[in-house]
Structure formats: structure tokens, C-alpha cells
Amino acid sequence: MEELLELIKKRRTIRQFRPEEIPVNILLELADLGRLAPSAANLQPLEFVIIQDPEVRRQVFPWLRWAAYINPAGNPKPGQEPVAYIVILVNTGIRQKGYEYDVGAAAENIILGALTQGIGSCWLISVDRDRLKNILEIPDDYKIDSVIALGYPAESPVVENFQGSPKYWKDEKETLHVPKRKLNDVVHLNRFGQRIER
Ligand SMILES: Cc1cc2nc3c(=O)[nH]c(=O)nc-3n(C[C@H](O)[C@H](O)[C@H](O)COP(=O)(O)O)c2cc1C
Description:
Helices cover 28% and strands 20% of the residues. It is an alpha+beta fold.
């Protein structure tokens, strides 16, 4: 297994996938990483729907929105759609608000865990929750928070220096470029505004 730090640094959102199935035991293992994530007051309001059935995948796909800045260029191409999803549910009987931190921790666990298996992912918050609830037969006392799309990567996005705009872009070879703010622009040493010389 690769070092955790290297995985964190090399992780990029993937939106083009190879048509190769992910074994269900791996998907279950990923949901387990979500289960074990930190949880405020240890309330554990989250549950996970694993989707791997091709028919359910086909029904879910139209209700997901990809890469808004470059729409439609970021959409998975036909034949490069995700091969699995993990839908993050909130049991509103346990928590109605303030669960977003738990979701963040669980999602990142799942995303990094997937990467250890060579599996790419896209965390999607831009989803049609009503349609998905219907398709997945989610009870009324559960909320869909977000969806993690999964599959073996068919693209290799690269990080760029931030030049004033957060907008990612695709070049003529269809490589996705993702601007990130510089370390020195986001870190302060002891007092706000004090920078670290490197
Ligand atoms: C909470 C959250 C919601 C997101 N929702 C979407 C989404 O609905 N659709 C999408 O294509 N990407 C979505 N993304 C992926 C971001 O666009 C992506 O993380 C960002 O462009 C930075 O790229 P990187 O993940 O490769 O660092 C989401 C990311 C986060 C953290």
C-alpha cells in the first residue's frame, strides 16, 4: 500500500472511468471506512447505499451533475460512466443538522480508501435528491447528503498553480487541469499574515 501522504497528494477527482467492475467486497470495505470515520458526539447518523447493479446505475446516472465549470466537457463519456456509487444518507431521526462534518470525514475516508485500491472517485453534491430517493426507495426520515461515484480511472487530472480563478479546465488532449492555491497563501505562522519562508 502506498504511503498515506502520497495518496492524499496524488488524489484528484476522477470523472472518466474504465468499464471494469469493482468487486462488491471492496465496496463493502469502503462503506466500512465511512462507518469508522470520526463522528460529532459519536452520534453516527450516517448510512451508506452501495450501488453496483448495472440497472440501478443506469437509472441513477441521469440525476448527477458533473464539473459545472466546464459543462458538458466534464461529463463521463458513454462507456466511461462510474461502475459503482456509495450514496451517503443521514438518518434524520438521529441528526437533522450539523451532520455535514461527519459526512466530510466519512467521504474522505471512502475516497482515500478507494485510491489504495487504484479506484478513482468523484464526490457529488449536485444531485437530484428527490429522483434518487425514489429510485433507491429511501424512507422519508432519511436525507441523501451526497454521492460518491467510483471506478478505475480513465483520466489523469493534474494540479496547477492558482492564477486568481478556481475554474478547472480541459486542454486539447482532454487533460483536466485543477488550480490549487499555493501553500504559502493559505498558511500563517503563529499570527495571521506571517508567512513561512521556504
Ligand atoms: C462537497 C463536494 C461536492 C462536490 N460536488 C461535485 C459535483 O456535484 N459534481 C462534480 O463533478 N464534482 C463535485 N465535486 C468535486 C470538485 O469539483 C473537486 O473536488 C474540485 O474541482 C477540486 O478537484 P480535486 O478533487 O481533483 O482536488 C465536489 C467536491 C466536494 C468536496
